[in-house]
Amino acid sequence: MLTYAVRRLFLMIPTLFGILLVNFMIIQAAPGGPVEQMIAKLRGTAVEATARISGAEGDGFQGNSMIDHGASSNFESKYRGARGLDPEFIAKLEKMYGFDQPAYIRFGKMIKNYLTFNFGDSYFRDISVAKLIAEKLPVSISLGLWSTLLIYCISIPLGIRKAVTDGERFDIWTSWVIIVGYAIPSFLFAIFLIVFLAGGSFLQIFPLRGLASDNWATFSWPHKISDYFWHITLPVFANVISGFASLTLLTKNSFLEEINKQYVLTARAKGLSERRVLYGHVFRNAMLIVVSGFPAAFIHIFFTSSLLIEVIFSLDGLGLLGFESAISRDYPVVFGTLFIFTLIGLLIHFLGDLTYMFIDPRIDFEKREG
């Protein structure tokens, strides 16, 4: 098992490299890069935005020197909207963002820096990417971990209960709850919660935005903890209601399949109690499929589902950061968040395989690979 674990850890390196390479090629081919974004800002907001951006970047561009209408009237640029701008200024923009070098050199420098977790600086935020990610990551971790924990704590016992009582009254009425969970997307349920419980048209029990009150730093520790859970209740609940349905059905069907197998009938014939049969024999085999699906479920809950939840509840997390950076073509932030997402995903898959082997010792990935 140790040999397999070490081999898997080393295989993460080329996998991570390949993912970054593919995404780098796709993003480089996409129109509207950072140079074009800057040109659009210059065109759209004139001197005020120009002065602010140039001051943030620290390159000393002055508003009256950025646009030279006479000198570049016949200038043809590869950037859309660059007509009327001084070619020298365009060259400075390219150098500032590193686009004066070939793509393979930029990618090589990026990989070299990423080996030491140096993600560079944001193009438009005047802050290092590592610091930006460190500021946003706790929000996404809070939302993702609590949602995942509650979904599994609800879905697994509920799925087992539905399998044991298959076709009975409990199974039937809980199926209606699962249908509702399937039918209502998390973002729509989040809006429903806001309207009814967060000062919409009915009650105002929970706060509408953020993970803490404005004066949170002045609270005592018990008050800080209660304030945190008060703020995170609705976002987590919105994630849970849409995520528990599929896992509940997966657990139920897995247990139903195992309950009808011959070894269960043999265990019952030996006089073992129903609880001993269920949790001593069926549980380990039935949970294999649930464990194997954990990495994909975790990534979905942690990143995909939480993106819209972060937007709706004004939670300044990593998912929202990655989305906004992709829209604004802030490449250092895009690749920095992609690197973190991918690394977490690979580690979760790795831990899922180890858990798989722990639950069922008969599984030996080393022999399968050999």
UniProtKB/TrEMBL annotation:
Residues spanning the membrane: 9-30, 139-160, 172-198, 228-251, 286-313, 333-359
How does this protein sit in the membrane?
A: Multi-pass membrane protein
Q: Does the keyword Cytoplasm apply?
A: no
Question: A biological process (GO) annotation for this entry?
Answer: transmembrane transport
Q: SUPFAM superfamilies from the entry?
A: MetI-like
Q: Which InterPro entries match?
A: MetI-like (IPR000515), MetI-like_sf (IPR035906)
Domain of life, per UniProt, equals Bacteria
Q: Which keywords does the record carry?
A: Cell inner membrane, Cell membrane, Membrane, Transmembrane, Transmembrane helix, Transport
Domain (ABC transmembrane type-1) spans 137-352
Localization, per the record, is:
Cell inner membrane; Cell membrane
NCBIfam families the record matches: PRK15133.1
The UniProt similarity line reads: Belongs to the binding-protein-dependent transport system permease family.
Protein name per its UniProtKB record = Inner membrane ABC transporter permease protein YejB
What is the primary gene name for this protein? yejB
